[in-house]
Structure formats: structure tokens, C-alpha cells
Amino acid sequence: MKILILGAGVVGTAYAWQLSKAGQDVTLFVRKSRLAELEKNGIRIRYRDERNKQTSPLETVYHPTLIDELNPEAGYELIMVCVRAQQLDDTLPLLAKNIGKANVLFFGNNWWGDERIQKQLPAGQYLFGFSRLVGGWRNNDQIECIFFDTPGLVTMLGEKDGRTTPRLETIVKIFKEANLKPVISHDILGWLAIHYVEFLGVIGGILKAGSTKAFANDPDTIKDAILATREELKTCKARGIDLARAAPLNIRLVNSLPIFMLLPLVKSQYQTPSIQQFFEENIAHGREELITQYYDVRAEGQRLKVSTPSFESFEPYFSRYRNSSVKN
Q1: Is 327 exposed, middle or buried (0-12, 13-18, 19+ CB in 10 A)?
Q2: Where are the domains of the chain?
Q3: Would you tell me which CATH number, out of the four given (2.40.70.10, 3.40.50.720, 3.40.50.170, 1.10.520.10), belongs to the domain 2-186?
Q4: Does residue 257 surpass a pLDDT of 60?
Q5: Rg for the chain (alpha carbons), in Å?
Q6: What is the pLDDT of residues 258-311, one digit of tens each?
Q7: CA pair distance 137, 9, nearest whole angstrom
Q8: What is the pLDDT of residue 187?
Q9: How far apart are CA 161 and CA 123, in angstroms?
Q10: How does pLDDT run across 27-83, given as a tens digit for each residue?
Q11: Residues 72, 77, 83, 89: what is their CA dihedral angle, to the nearest 10 degrees?
């Protein structure tokens, strides 16, 4: 399949690399300012692949096919849009002019469904997905990433209406050939909304505690994070999202188990060094998106008159985080 990946961050680069290795014809769209350098030096990737039971980091240099301008006549069959949530509005006009006949896979955080997308793209030309398989960050000019081998950490894919269409089956097939662990969701927009809020309570707790390690050893803040997550799920429910249908098992457990049972589970999970590193790096490098997510969800809860005292108690820490981001 001829694939264009728009968004050369961790996820976009990792999926381009894996799909290329599996024999797909993949092109990566990059900024003009980076094109010459990347054509000359490639993209350095330092990775752990738990799918292959690999525990020590390896390094490689990926030399993708690169472009810095879109062309609607290029004949792409699939365009994967791997941009951050706050970048989508700027990306849509560019897509609208250049997608040609390609199917567009919006592959990232999404709180608003296709509310904005449908204003610019034909309704039948796009579908949705998200990677829980890959976690990582950018370290100077190097991509650092982990391919997880944990149940639930997969590639989610789905059509807006929940159908299993031929194009969805084709994408699942090529992702499976690349060992990208695809799973079809029959309520992908509900799943994406739930994922959008999934870690905000924990992030708020980490910001309050000062670090992931401190958070893991602070039962009061862990409790606040659990309560905040439950309040966020109430906001999802108020939007009409069917939690029983769309939420993954871990979220259903957070929403139903007694807090005294959840506390040791959360504490144990966030004491894991790799989890601590993952959250610290993503907080450091994903500021704008995390801030966008928090204030999107907070505003929607207020609009729907959902009571979210624990979630809103983290606002001073996100505000401080936002202000430090502006200064930096």
C-alpha cells in the first residue's frame, strides 16, 4: 500500500519505520527546515521492542522516503495523520486541498470526534485510530521509543459508525503484517474520548506531587487522581458516551473497584522505573497537548454541569505547568 504519514514525531516515525520494514511503500512528511538534514543523516531511533522480548535498548538509523510538500496527484492510498490534538485545526486545511482519493486515518488524541473534520473533508473519506502500542519521546535529534507487549497496549482502529468495512480490514491486515497489534473498536470515537481523559488525573497528581516517584508514594494524591478520573468519566457519560461499550477494562475497573483496592495497584504500577520514565518524559515533552487536554475536558464538564471537584483541584498545577511552558 502507498502510505503517507503526516507528523514525524515519535508515533508517526515509529509506524513509518515498522510499516516500511513490512514492505509497505511509506513516505514521511517533514518540515522544509528538516528535509535536507534528514535526507542526509536519516532518523536515529533508540528503542526497546518488548514484542520480541528485547529488554536492552538497541539503536538504528531509519532512512525514509521524505517529502515537504503535499501533492493531491501523488496517488497515496492511505494518509495517516499523526499530529498532536492542538495541531489538528492547522492541519485540516492542508489535508482538504491535498488528499486526492486517499483514505485518511486520524491517528491521535481526539476529544471532539469529527466535529471539525467533517467541515473540511468528505464524510466517507476518513476513519480513526490511536497507538497505545508505542510510547516514547524525542531526545535532541533522536527518537526514543518502546514497543510494548502488554495486553491492552495495542493499535486501536475503527470507523466512525462502528462498521467493519473493507478499507478497515485492509488497514488491519497491513498493520498485523507489521506486528503493530491492530484491534478494531466498534465505538472508536467513544474510545478516543475516554482515552483523552484517561491519564489526566494521574498527570495532575504527578504535577502536584512534583514527580512520578513522589506521586507513587503519596496515597492521598493517588486517591485524588482516582477520584478525578472518575469525574472525567462522568463528563464522558454526560456527552452520551457508553462507558460499558467503549471503555477498556482498566478504565472500567478504575470506575468500579473500591478505592482501597485501587490504591495498592496504582502505587505498584507507578513505582515501576520504566513507567516513571515514560511519564516524566511525556510531561517534559508533551506540555502543549496535555494542557490542551486538561482545559478541553474541564470546559466541557463545566458546560455540561458535571461536578468535578477533584479534577478541578489540579487546575493550579496545570496552570503553573502552562505558565512555565510559555516561559520556556
Answers
A1: exposed
A2: 2-186, 193-327
A3: 3.40.50.720
A4: yes
A5: 20
A6: 999 999 999 998 998 878 888 998 898 888 899 999 999 999 999 999 999 999
A7: 8
A8: 96
A9: 11
A10: 999 999 999 999 999 999 999 999 988 878 999 999 999 999 999 999 999 999 999
A11: 50
